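#struct-help
A.M.: can someone run this one for me? Single chain, 318 residues.
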Amino acid sequence: MPENNGNGIAVETHELVKRFGDFVAVDRVTLKVARGEIFGFLGPNGAGKSTTIRILCGLLEPTQGDARVAGYDVRTESEQIKHNIGYMSQKFSLYDDLTVEENLDFFAGIYGVPEQRRGEREDYVLRMAGLTERRTSMTRLLAGGWKQRLALGCAILHEPPILFLDEPTSGVDPIARRNFWGLIYQLSAAGQTIFVSTHYMDEAEYCHRLALMYRGKVIALGTPAELKKSLDSHPILDLETPDLLGSMKTLENQAGILDVAVFGGGLHVTVEDHSSAIPQIRSLLDGRRISISRLERIEPSMEDVFVAQIEEEERKPQ
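D.P.: on it. Structure tokens below:
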């Protein structure tokens, strides 16, 4: 079904607010998502990502503000929105007591796929998800990654132009996550708009653009490269040392050193100027007889970006 929107915008919100009593779950969210874009919602649990998605899917009415999906108003045209979207949650809303094929039959009926097209659409989903050989398997016997693929297939049976994926990779192994993103790219290349939420920082790299959410607010918006570039004024050094705790205590609150955080098996040190900070850090740690196996400037990760944005948000007057 084609989108009722001629301006190239698939999803648009303006000053969107959702309150539950005194709690503000979504706080003045404004954004635009282009057709065919993979748009990421990145943030910790409780940031407001799922609530925003439920509003955009026509499942919740906003307290304030406006939103349009596929050209339809979320307040007055929620039924039209539901015909133009696919939705997949982290719980993989499947029926474990049905086979793979029976789940596809069921959801094809729910989504109103015409009888004459069901066989074609179900065969496409089975091929896309790599489930052709498992079509008669009981769904409860599938591994998490296969259930994830089946849930995605069920969400696109009716060929929706916009797909909402709410924490779709939660609870599956890294290989299944990588394979799942391969499927997302296939769908985007075919012209579908993908709106995906995640709390995995590495998955932000796969998105065309993303919004960083924290406490209901969008605190940063842009491409992964643009968001990383925002940290150019604060270089990040990767420090590998056998004494992480001692190094942190030594470097914290030193002039020119803005932040020290554990990252993987080492430390990320945010500094004002890397050319002067590197000899400073070597001197400070040498004075404590702490050895260094690696100390060099690196490109910031999305986790570095997110931590920096949160710290900046925390410094703002409430």
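A.M.: thanks! Residues 1-6 have pLDDT under 50 and may be disordered.
D.P.: also worth noting: The two ends are 45 Å apart (CA to CA).
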